[in-house]
Amino acid sequence: MRMYGLKSLEAGKFEVEEDAETLTVPAVITREDVYDYDGMLVYEPAEEIEEATLTAENAWIVENHPSEVILTKAEDIKGTVAKAVFEEDRIKADLTFYKDRCSPQYLNDIKKGRIKSVSIGFFWELEPRKGEFNGKHYDYVMRGIFIDHVAVGSWTGRCSYPLCGIGIDGKLKGANPYPNEHSCRLRDPETLDIVGSGERKHNGKTYRVIFGKPKGKPEAGSVEQAYRYPVETWSEDEARNHCQDHGGNFEAATKEEESAGLAQDESEREKLHEAAKRREEKYSIKFREGKGNLTPPEGYPTDEDDYGDPVNYAYPLVPEERCRNALARWGAFRGEYEQSERNVIYERIVKRALQYGISVQYNHELPEAKALPESIKKQMEGYDSADSIIAKVSVLVKQLKSIV
Fold first, then answer.
1. What is the pTM of this model?
2. CB 197 within 8 A of CB 175
3. In 10 A of CB 237, how many CB atoms?
4. In angstroms, rounded to a whole number, what is the distance separating the alpha carbons of residues 90 and 330?
5. Which alpha helices (H) appear in 125-227, and where do they start and end?
6. Mean local confidence (pLDDT), 333-353
7. Which of 1, 25, 74, 213 is the most buried (most CB within 10 A)?
8. CA separation (Å) from 165 to 117, 195, 311?
């Protein structure tokens, strides 16, 4: 089955090329690895990434993933992907932003490193097959990758720096400090090939571990190259002490000239996440970090009730045409949700469609259709209620008796 996915990549430091009309930054937009897609461990092979390189060239850049999942509105476009090339195990490209289509704040956040992540929206085929890559188990293999668009934002992605993101070149340099994380260097990155990263906890606080293998020795075991400490949860002193306890060289997160503005931005984001948490509790749908929208996208409904997924502001239901789109595309993208969430979202889409007078076909094989209230099912085309079936059987029995 053809599937749709979103994968976020976190950036590090980068160089900016700028003229009067555009701002351009280099990036790695995807690379070979095992990724977790809502509980599914999926391997993205290098050969599939190489085949997908053509689809990355000239892909549109957006600020947030479209509410309608794929890009359908020209006003959402902020720039384009250029010079997409496959190198070893990744796609490298230049991300060019059109200044007349981006807000000054958005462009400034990119230049200052507050926006540092890339998230591709793409179609793919799922092949059930178990295996292991770089010591990571997987249950599925990704095939037929087709990149639809690239979103650039401030989330933390599946493929984190220094493996993927804005500013990463062909040679991975390991851990250098940047505004969101303190750094602890354990080994010289020039002696290692960086192969992955993972998370650990110390005194209840999470930190990242960067792993590498000795250069030219792919069969050798992985070793720790560096630790990363998020500034949101680790003070400089706490991170420094932990690093020194492990014999590392500590570097504090880089300082920003606009620290007051950054703190204000972080405060606003925290408030938006708190609001998303309240919506989660209200609708029993999870907010999808890096995928969902914290606020209604520009040009879309402002009322959460006008979305099939009001937590992530996805599947807009007004005007009528958008509701038709949500209904038509539901079957292709339902895999992004757990079944309990599908039940909630599908019911909201169907109810609004029926209010518009749209004819909705009942699919007896769809679990969320079976979970609909009887009052809604009775309004759908092709649905036979238990009473209706009994009545038909009764008529058939009478007809058979009359024949006998």
1. 0.49
2. no
3. 9
4. 31
5. none
6. 91
7. 25
8. 6, 15, 27
Over 50: is that where the pLDDT of 101 sits?
yes
CA distance 89 to 28: 10
pLDDT, one tens digit per residue, over 356-367 is 999 999 998 899
Give the span between the Cα atoms of 166 and 168, in whole angstroms. Answer: 6
Q: Find all residues with CB under 8 Å of 164, minimum gap 6, and list them.
A: 9, 10, 11, 28, 29, 30, 31, 90, 118, 157
Please list, in sequence order, all residues whose beta carbon lies within 8 angstroms of the beta carbon of residue 142, skipping any fewer than 6 positions away.
42, 43, 44, 45, 48, 124, 125, 126, 127
Q: Provide the residue type at 89 as one letter.
A: D
Q: b/e string for 147-184 if b means 16 or more Cβ within 10 A?
A: bbbbbbbbbbbbbbbbbbbbbbeeebebbbbbbbbbbb
- Domain boundaries of the chain, sorted by first residue: 2-169, 285-377
Q: Which of 6, 64, 97 is nearest to 298 (CA)?
A: 64
Identify which has the larger pLDDT, 198 or 338.
338
Q: What is the percentage of the chain residues whose pLDDT exceeds 90?
A: 29
**Beta strands at 136-153 and 60-62: parallel, antiparallel or unpaired:** parallel
Compute φ and ψ for 199, nearest 5 degrees. -115, 145
- Amino acid code (one letter) for 171: K
Please write down the long-range contacts of 388-397, taking CB distance under 8 Å and 24 or more positions apart.
Answer: none
Beta strands in 186-252 (DSSP E): 192-202, 205-214, 223-230, 249-251
Tell me the β-bridge partners of 393: none
